[in-house]
Amino acid sequence: MTSPPKDFERIVQSDRIDELLTILSGPAGLGLSLENRDSDPMPALLEGFQPGQPLLLDISTLGERIGKLRRGVGFRLVGQGQGGMIRTPVLKAVDIEDKEGRWWLRCPYPGYLEWQQRRDAFRAELRLGMQAAVAVYDRDRGVSGLGDLRDLSLTGCRVELEASGLTAGLDPDHRLALEMTFPDGSIFEVAARSPHQRVDAERGMVSVGFSFEDLNLEQERRLWFLVREVEREAARTAGGMRKDLAPSSLFRRLAPAPLRANPRSRFPVPVMAEKLAPCAGWLDNQILVLRQGQHIDGAQLSRQADRLIELWEEDREGLLFATRCLDREPLLVRHGLGVAVHLLDLARAENMPRALCKALAAAAMVHDLGKALLPPNLLALPVLDARQYSWLQGHVPLLMQRMDDCGWLTRPVLDAVVGDINERLDGSGYPRQRQGDDLSQLARLASVVDVVDIMSRQRPGRDPWSVTDIYAWLDRNGARFDRRWVNRYRDHFGIWPVGSLVRYPDGLIGRVAALDQRGLPSRLRLPAADGGWLEAEELANREEPEMSLAAPAD
Asked: Is 121 within 8 Å of 86 (Cβ atoms)?
């Protein structure tokens, strides 16, 4: 809610207006508050501005409230900066446009701004050596993350989180639970939303701005204390120790910081999965990067592809197995890595040049990330009607437009693995319904790897399929896929592929970690409750597995 007009100072100087608008267009972001509505500001993004020219806003997160703006309801843009609250006068939309799945609003350039000094807008920053852990819980979706507190105010905080399934799925409209633990062992719990995120791709971290919600009187009092203590300790340690300030009891280490939660999996996570995790973390970050209007980082993509090849050369079967052990990451990340590793493995088996293998793995890692630019509710639908399916197809050109920084990827590879991976020989694919001889051998190969991986994973409204059922489905749909590559895939990975779940006649269930020369499991990972590994000698006296199973949710 905004404060009464009398509390605000009117800013009319053009250079000062530009300065405050620059703050609103920065990482701290802004909110859009409907006129005469008793509600909190809604997240929006100021894409940029030129003095005197209409403002351009991304309002994709507003949902059904976009209709009110189209009907002429006035609004203010509000935000924080320079120790105070910034807001525009009441504005009205000049134009609202739906473009490539995002909603854009143009409104007049404000003739003035209003600024109100607010103590509760002050953010106390934790200096070097001051540590506080923050656990973030999304209880509805069953995911969590842990990071470090960077600053704190009466209205929110900034937390640096490790990239995870939670960070990639951050939604400004979704309510989260925060639990801050300070060195003295004291804990502060609060509900919050995450309107702002900024990616640090080099470090694999995400800086998240949280806005607190539904504070009661006791929480407000506690926040005053915490902010004051953080500010005092920061002042005490700034530029050397200030002897006139006593150390804050809040930062006297009496209890260890909480450990980051281990992935919850039926099967213990092997070392190779830990080595693969940084690649997954980077892909998580790229989802946020894309949603913030940026492009795929070509230099980092090259490094991640090199890392995949190094891991493959270190332990081929270990890497294949690891693609089934990641369970904290979103489907887009798990699927991208699964396709990348299996496509790389087939390419190496075909003796393709190393540079081509690297390009194929790189393109496969990101091939589906354009879906991150689509509305989340569209991706959650188990069945799509004709209009929704057409909308879904837009993820391919959306991603292709964001690959400008990946000039080292050759156009044939980019077209095959990103542009044509969803095409089919009979013309039933998308986005261009290419068919037959129009599709390269690389595109035909990639489409087989892609469909096998996605059908083996849990998806919205769809249970995973067993390898046996997937192979049977490919046989029934022979007109859609290149028979040579279907057979080559089956011959190469076998009927009990590494990573698949199998059951033996005596009821033993395990995940295949290695195969012998006959294509039979020679190493099996048992569920955590049943022990560790079964090696070749322990499997030699058993009969062949009786069937492959649909794997549980990854």
From this structure: no
Instruction: State how far the Cα of 162 lies from the Cα of 260, in Å rounded to an integer.
Output: 10
- How far apart CA 151 and CA 162 sit, in angstroms, is 17
Model pLDDT for residues 148-185, shown as the tens digit of each residue: 899 998 889 999 887 666 766 677 778 899 999 888 87
Signed CA dihedral, 352, 356, 358, 362: sign only: negative
Q: Domain count for the chain, please give it.
A: 3
**CATH classification of the domain holding 111:** 2.30.110.10
- CA–CA gap between residue 451 and residue 459 (Å, rounded): 13
Determine the distance from the C-alpha atom of residue 342 to the mean position of all C-alpha atoms in its chain, rounded to a whole number. Answer: 22
Q: Bridge-partner residues for 152, per DSSP?
A: 124, 157
Helices (H), 456-517: 467-476, 483-493
In a shared domain, residues 175 and 214: yes
Q: Cα separation of 44 and 77, whole Å?
A: 9
Return d(Cα 161, Cα 146) in angstroms, integer: 6
Rounded-to-integer distance, Cα 200 and Cα 158, Å: 14
In 3-state terms, what secondary structure has residue 491?
helix
CATH of the domain at 143: 2.40.10.220
Predicted TM-score (pTM) of the model is 0.62
| CATH code at position 373 | 1.10.3210.10
Closest CA to 159 of 167, 142, 147: 147
Q: Are residues 276 and 375 part of one domain?
A: yes
- Cα distances from 460 to residues 321, 330, 421, 454, in angstroms, run 23, 12, 21, 12
Which of 429, 447, 465 corresponds to the end of one domain?
Answer: 465
List 57's β-bridge partners, or say none: 46, 105
pLDDT at 4 over 50: no
Helix, coil or strand: residue 536: helix
Determine the structural domain holding residue 30 and report its residue range.
Answer: 5-120
Six token digits for residue 519 = 């294509």
Enter the tokens of residue 52: 């005197």
Asked whether residue 541 carries a pLDDT value surpassing 60, the answer given is yes
Would you state the torsion angle of the CA atoms of residues 408, 413, 416, 417, taken in this order, to the nearest 10 degrees? -70
Give the pLDDT score at 450. Answer: 98
Q: Are both 286 and 426 inside the same structural domain?
A: yes
User: What pLDDT is recorded for position 1?
Assistant: 34
Same domain, yes or no, for 155 and 180? Answer: yes
Say if residues 201 and 282 touch (Cβ distance below 8 Å).
Answer: yes
Instruction: Report d(CA 355, CA 275) in Å as an integer.
Output: 22
What tens digit of pLDDT does each residue of 323-361 get?
998 876 788 999 999 999 999 999 999 999 999 999 999
Q: Are residues 289 and 436 in the same domain?
A: yes
3-state class percentages of the chain: helix first, strand second, coil last, to nearest 5? 40, 20, 40
Instruction: Please state whether beta strands 95-99 and 143-152 pair in parallel, antiparallel, or not at all (unpaired).
Output: unpaired
Cα–Cα nearest to 301, from 333, 272, 279, 322: 279
